[in-house]
Amino acid sequence: MLIADRYELDELPLGRGGMGAVYAGHDRHLGRRVAVKFLGLPGGPDAELEQRFIREARILATLEHAGAPTLYDFGTYDERLFQVMQFIEGVTVADLAAEHGPLPVPWAAAIAAQACAVLSAAHALSICHRDLKPTNLMLCPDGSVKVLDFGLAMLRETDVAQFTRAGQILGTPAYMAPEQIQRGVAGPRSDLYALGCVLHEMLTGRQLFTGPTAYTVFEKQVKESPAEVDGVPGGLNGLLAELLEKEPERRPADANELFGRLAVFARDLPPLPGYLDEGANPGRMYARVVGRVP
């Protein structure tokens, strides 16, 4: 499939989400791999909503951070909105946890801390991710983490209501903060709650809240508090409990604070054979020196 007379997409999608499918593709103009995500609208085309998406895409394009894929292009094709993003090589945290089981504490903290750095940059631009989850965190061969799929960040609360009326759940129940579930409102601390769910999953190897239906999971998110995780330092368990507080104001103040508290545990990272490049790596070489800057 060729869209915009430029992007040639693979026949089968890389994956599907609540808002559409993601395809790997090739940019004929610049000769590079890209990822293209289609965003489905409830009830078909909506000119006003499309214009808002375009405005929000321009804001999202200002998110220039090494941990966030670059937004290359944006438009409509066959009455569907699409985003063209940087293609990222690596393994998702979902696949990593499924194959590895519980991750070593230093790696779980390091992955979460890197995600915080990206969220800090996004939140400074008033961009909330809204759908942070293990499949949207990619561990790259150089050990860096990319936060994927800011598609829901391009929606406003009025747009969320439109999708909800159409019977679509915006977000993933297992990682949605109580305020998203109860009031349809997401802020920076909602992203921190979602990251808490991901961190818990990395430390235990299993999803925090499960159930036969989305509404069963919603009820647990709103009412249940998880137990401490065995084998995890007390300070990290305490931080995890704060992240998973039901009231947003009881969570860490922001992603900057959370980064500092996680970084304490992200030391002496053990090898992850099969997932990371061995030996010298340009990305790690670069980061090693940057990390020494006061």
Descriptive report:
The chain has 294 residues and is α+β, with helices and mostly antiparallel strands. It folds into two domains: 2-86, 2-Layer Sandwich (Phosphorylase Kinase, domain 1); 91-290, Transferase(Phosphotransferase) domain 1 (Transferase(Phosphotransferase), domain 1, Orthogonal Bundle). The chain has helices at 47-60, 93-100, 105-124, 157-165, 178-183, 188-204, 214-223, 234-243, 255-263, 282-290, and strands at 2-3, 7-9, 15-17, 20-27, 32-39, 71-77, 80-86, 91-92, 137-139, 145-147. Strands 1, 2, 3, 4, 5, 6 and 7 form a seven-stranded antiparallel beta sheet that branches. It has a three-stranded antiparallel beta sheet with strand order 8-9-10. Strand 3 and strand 4 form a beta hairpin. 39% of the residues are buried.
Strand percentage lies at: 15-25%
CATH topology of the largest domain: Transferase(Phosphotransferase), domain 1
The CATH class of the largest domain is identified as Mainly Alpha
The CATH homologous superfamily of the largest domain is termed Transferase(Phosphotransferase) domain 1
- Tally the beta strands: 10
Please supply descriptive tags for the structure shown above.
alpha+beta; single chain; 7-stranded antiparallel β-sheet; 294 residues; 2 domains; Phosphorylase Kinase, domain 1; Transferase(Phosphotransferase), domain 1; 3-stranded antiparallel β-sheet
